[in-house]
Design a protein that fits this description.
The chain contains 9 helices and 7 strands. The protein has a 5-stranded parallel sheet with strand order 2-1-3-4-5, sandwiched between helices. It has a two-stranded antiparallel ribbon with strand order 6-7. Strand 6 and strand 7 form a beta hairpin.
């Protein structure tokens, strides 16, 4: 009997790509489609679903990780395969903490999607060895320290130096130093440019909008 699959992605073209992959194997059949995380949760909780293919970023209040967490809390037997094209480094750690079985990066594709699905349904947990390395100004993403990444994540939310310091439990001067170091490394001219390039390239994602420069 074929496994029933829920596909959740806000882009119609991507949903169609996943549909073709699912239909290429006699082991799976499409049970439902969702264009938003909230819709994915609703269908997962009220329909017979064995596996969910879900994008992380879907342009609404809830993201794929939030939706996966809610589904796992209510239907832990459903296996989830998260998908993203973003290089955001925190996604893998968050997914593992939630208990999501597998993770597939569109840009890396170490293994075909169907193979990941098969291994997931066989009881394996399949994650990429690492997220992709991306160009960030004059450097690549791996040249940033973990602390710089955390400061950068708060920076893209529009947080002030004082707010960043409070959130990350460091002094304002330390925040300023990390931002200055990142500007020197990348060659960007301002903290706003630093934040916009980081957000635009998917290096770090924060649910709050870019807004403050002070």
């Amino acid at each position: 009997m074929a496994y029933k699959v829920l596909i959740a992605d806000d882009q119609k073209m991507v949903r169609q790509m996943f549909e073709l992959a699912v239909k290429s194997s006699e082991n799976y059949e499409i049970a439902a489609l969702a264009a938003a995380p909230e819709e994915a949760v609703e269908k997962a909780l009220h329909q017979k679903i064995d596996l969910i293919l879900m994008d992380v970023v879907m342009g609404s209040g809830m993201d794929g990780l939030d939706a996966a967490k809610e589904i796992k809390e209510n239907r832990p037997e459903i296996k989830i395969l998260l998908v993203t094209s973003m290089p955001e480094v925190s996604y893998i750690d968050r997914a593992k903490a939630i208990g999501i079985e597998s993770f597939w990066h569109k840009e890396v594709q170490e293994q075909p999607l169907i193979e990941i699905m098969d291994r997931t349904m066989a009881g394996e947990s399949v994650y990429p060895a690492s997220m992709p390395v991306v160009r960030f100004g004059n450097i690549v993403s791996t040249e940033l320290t973990e602390t710089e990444i955390e400061v950068l994540r708060e920076l893209v939310s529009g947080a002030s130096n004082k707010e960043i310091a409070e959130r990350l439990y460091m002094s304002v001067n330390t925040v300023k130093r990390h931002i200055s170091d990142m500007l020197e490394k990348t060659g960007f001219k301002s903290r706003l440019q630093l934040a916009i390039r980081a957000r635009g390239g998917g290096l770090v994602i924060n649910n709050r909008d870019i807004g403050s420069e002070d």
